[in-house]
Write a structure and sequence with these properties.
The chain has eleven helices and eleven strands. By secondary structure, the chain is α/β, with parallel strands linked by helices. Bound molecules: succinic acid.
């Protein structure tokens, strides 16, 4: 009798779909958003429609609020917060907040290559995070109403930072006032002059429209902004090997594309910002090699 019931249930089991929610804080026209949509498309295709990722942009909850609940949440299965934001949970990762530490994105990719340095992957694992991999956005620039062309210009400037000892110490050591606030409030905080300066990538600066309320874009390549794409561990542990492999395969394909999109978006957004600067009270400042060196040496002191 039991066996007959099992047979009757089999079609439901075979055709049951798994839905994964993937909320992201950025707007749609960013490399992370584009990659998330492609990732969702490939998961659906490879699983023949049995696994669905629903991507949600411009979320109300901040990355930190979502990271706090990720591993037990029924509503969030995948997240891609900036690596800089993991410092709260994995203090050893705070080095991502060190200004001017990395010269090339390839060096960062190497850090996550299992053949190169297993430690970074283990930092995630031993802190309960299932890391699928890392997506790029790019190097960060500054937008400000105050011209910042040397480290001492940070003095008395209210700068938006992540929750990070390194970022806070750097700003304090230059007499700046670091203010930690979620991405969602950046525009309002700049508009209401609650902060003077943000540090962000060109695609985030463009899509949040924060450039429209700032006088300067200072091309500083301050630090790297990339994303740790993590999966809810209670959800992951319930998946079969086949289901995990579908996610891993789709993620691998999305990552290859994402890294190209990050470069394309950077070039495209700079072009758009240059166009805007031609007709508005908005100046793009490119520092000389010497001016940049002053920033770099100052960090290493
Ligand atoms: C993001 O790119 O996900 C947002 C980064 C930020 O909070 O500035």
């Amino acid at each position: 009798m039991i066996k007959i019931w099992l047979l009757l249930l089999l079609p439901f089991y075979l055709y049951a779909t798994i839905t994964m929610h993937f909320p992201i804080v950025t707007k749609i026209n960013t490399p992370k958003a584009k990659a998330a949509l492609y990732f969702a498309k490939r998961v659906k295709e490879i699983s023949k429609g049995k696994m669905i990722i629903q991507v949600q942009f411009d979320t109300k909850l901040s990355d930190n609020q979502m990271l706090n609940i990720l591993n037990d949440s029924k509503d969030i299965q995948i997240l891609a917060p900036a690596l800089n934001k993991f410092a709260t949970y994995i203090p050893k990762l705070d080095f991502f907040n060190t200004p001017f530490l990395f010269k090339s994105i390839y060096k960062i990719h190497e850090l996550f290559d299992p053949l190169y340095d297993k430690n970074i992957l283990n930092y995630f694992k031993s802190n309960g995070f299932i890391l699928l991999g890392v997506w790029d956005n790019g190097f960060t620039q500054l937008t400000s109403n105050k011209l910042i062309i040397c480290p001492s210009d940070f003095k008395n400037t209210r700068v938006r930072v992540y929750s990070s000892k390194i970022a806070v110490n750097y700003m304090h050591s230059h007499g700046a006032i670091p203010i930690n606030l979620p991405f969602r409030y950046l525009y309002t905080a700049l508009k209401k002059s609650l902060i003077d300066t943000q540090i962000n990538t060109l695609s985030n600066i463009y899509t949040t429209k924060t450039y429209t309320i700032q006088r300067y874009l200072i091309m500083l390549d301050y630090n790297y902004l990339g994303y740790g794409v993590v999966v809810n561990s209670s959800f992951w542990n319930k998946l079969s090997k086949t289901q995990k492999n579908i996610i891993k395969q789709a993620f691998k394909e999305a990552t290859q594309k994402e890294r190209i999109w990050a470069i394309v978006y950077e070039t495209l957004m700079l072009k758009k910002l240059k166009e805007y600067a031609k007709t508005h009270n908005f100046k793009i400042i490119t520092l000389s090699k010497k001016q940049k060196e002053i920033f770099t040496k100052d960090t290493l002191k």
